[in-house]
Amino acid sequence: MSEEKAPTPSMDEKRGSVATDSVDFGGELSLPPPPSLTEEEERKLWRKVDLRLMPILSLMYLLSFMDRGALLAILGNAKLQGLATQLDLTGNRYNIALTMYFIPYCLFECPANLVLKQFHPSRWLPGITIAWGIVMTLMGLVKNYPQLVGVRVCLGVAEAGLFPGVVYYLSLWYPRHKLQVRIGLFFGAASLAGAFSGLLAFAISFMSGTRGLLGWSWIFILEGIATVIVGILAAFILVDFPSTAKFLTPEERAYIVHKKKYDNSSVGEEEHFEMRHLWAAMTDWQVWLQILIYMSIIGPLYGITLFLPTIIKSFGHTAAISQLLTVPPYVVATMILYAFAYYSDKIKMRSPFIILGLTFCLIGFSINISDVSNGVKYFGTFFVVAGSYAAFPGVVAWLGNNLAGQYKRGIGMAMQIGIGNFSGAIASNIYRSQDAPRFLVGHGCELMFVGIGFVTVPIAVLAYIHINNKRDAAQKEALERGETNKYTPQQLREMGDRAPDFRYTL
């Protein structure tokens, strides 16, 4: 079933609306009238934007995912076990160190999104990248376990604004049915990080002893320095908003602003912050339902990221071979992720691909909880990695598509990611060494998350279909009665996704 769309104004009607509505959406009053572009010209314009924004954003997230997973890569490398000895990571101390990252990471995501527009994306995103790069570098100098936990907390605070901030930032540029491909390109860096962070850790381990520091210290230091360099580079590359993007011509800026204005609404979105936007996001039923959907994917995603090294380690291979065996599942996942993103935007639907990803996870965890050989379990990890990583961009894009009003969308998406990421904290503690080799508790919890997804995704789809049908019927009745312009443009903007002309993406 494809999404039903409300009639949208023609380009001439859109141009005329600027004169009748004094609100300056996205800086459009400072721009010339938007041009009419052919499909090929529009594709070239979006490629131009992609080439400016996507490489640096993907590189920033690649480093973010590698930095937060560096502790895992070190513990999974036999050559780097000096970390466990030097910092006394006995008992559940390793799990606590992982968990202490997630708590501030989750708590600070919503506040970070609220300040992104005020502090300007071109300053805020590079600024927090430099901040966590410095924290990461300092992590290489810790001397005891309390210092490690403290620096992990600081890392969670510093990184909190990146992922929700970038997704929100992309939603200010791209129409909602071009969004998942861009989130996929951006998040694909995470699966590449999973593929190569272990190999990088193994390579850097040979620096052990240099300047009196063990190999694990050099991993933190070198990754931190690289992050700082990328943050500084990003400050020169990123731009704030379409209307101020100097790499575009005035006509190209005008086209993108108009495309965004009529993407979610016939009159544009509200752009200024008011406290009611916070209340609207916090009381919106779909935000809380989408948080559960998010948890059903992110729990398995972090679970397999934590569990895969344990599977590989049990094969009895050398450290180098074990690190190489972690690469194929992530490579396959990256390819499937891009395929999901492309076809999801093409058919303008999110839910079928989320269900497919959940099905992959169900198959993979069912294999791993069974009493089968390690080779079969390794085969099962391909399903879990592919399902969780490939479905994740769709979950984030789905809520972003269905929230209107820039601040409501920013707050709602930050709530989804912030609260939903607590399932990552759960995943950090469910795989216990005493449960080997079947890990009934860990895999059982992951199957619970998957089950939550199989319940909540259909509920969301049915609710969206019901509301869309009601609005279609109401609009048809209004036209039959000859009612037009029942609401002013300002009232429609304030209603956001509750406006009668808004249709939810399925």
UniProtKB/TrEMBL annotation:
<dbReference type="InterPro" id="IPR020846">
    <property type="entry name" value="MFS_dom"/>
</dbReference>
<feature type="compositionally biased region" description="Basic and acidic residues">
    <location>
        <begin position="1"/>
        <end position="16"/>
    </location>
</feature>
<feature type="transmembrane region" description="Helical">
    <location>
        <begin position="411"/>
        <end position="431"/>
    </location>
</feature>
<feature type="transmembrane region" description="Helical">
    <location>
        <begin position="183"/>
        <end position="204"/>
    </location>
</feature>
<feature type="transmembrane region" description="Helical">
    <location>
        <begin position="123"/>
        <end position="142"/>
    </location>
</feature>
<feature type="transmembrane region" description="Helical">
    <location>
        <begin position="96"/>
        <end position="116"/>
    </location>
</feature>
<feature type="transmembrane region" description="Helical">
    <location>
        <begin position="376"/>
        <end position="399"/>
    </location>
</feature>
<feature type="domain" description="Major facilitator superfamily (MFS) profile">
    <location>
        <begin position="53"/>
        <end position="471"/>
    </location>
</feature>
<keyword id="KW-0472">Membrane</keyword>
<feature type="region of interest" description="Disordered">
    <location>
        <begin position="1"/>
        <end position="38"/>
    </location>
</feature>
<dbReference type="Pfam" id="PF07690">
    <property type="entry name" value="MFS_1"/>
</dbReference>
<feature type="transmembrane region" description="Helical">
    <location>
        <begin position="216"/>
        <end position="239"/>
    </location>
</feature>
<feature type="transmembrane region" description="Helical">
    <location>
        <begin position="320"/>
        <end position="341"/>
    </location>
</feature>
<feature type="transmembrane region" description="Helical">
    <location>
        <begin position="53"/>
        <end position="76"/>
    </location>
</feature>
<feature type="transmembrane region" description="Helical">
    <location>
        <begin position="353"/>
        <end position="370"/>
    </location>
</feature>
<feature type="transmembrane region" description="Helical">
    <location>
        <begin position="148"/>
        <end position="171"/>
    </location>
</feature>
<dbReference type="InterPro" id="IPR011701">
    <property type="entry name" value="MFS"/>
</dbReference>
<dbReference type="GO" id="GO:0022857">
    <property type="term" value="F:transmembrane transporter activity"/>
</dbReference>
<protein>
    <submittedName>
        <fullName>MFS general substrate transporter</fullName>
    </submittedName>
</protein>
<dbReference type="GO" id="GO:0016020">
    <property type="term" value="C:membrane"/>
</dbReference>
<keyword id="KW-0812">Transmembrane</keyword>
<dbReference type="InterPro" id="IPR036259">
    <property type="entry name" value="MFS_trans_sf"/>
</dbReference>
<keyword id="KW-1133">Transmembrane helix</keyword>
<keyword id="KW-0813">Transport</keyword>
<feature type="transmembrane region" description="Helical">
    <location>
        <begin position="285"/>
        <end position="308"/>
    </location>
</feature>
<feature type="transmembrane region" description="Helical">
    <location>
        <begin position="447"/>
        <end position="467"/>
    </location>
</feature>
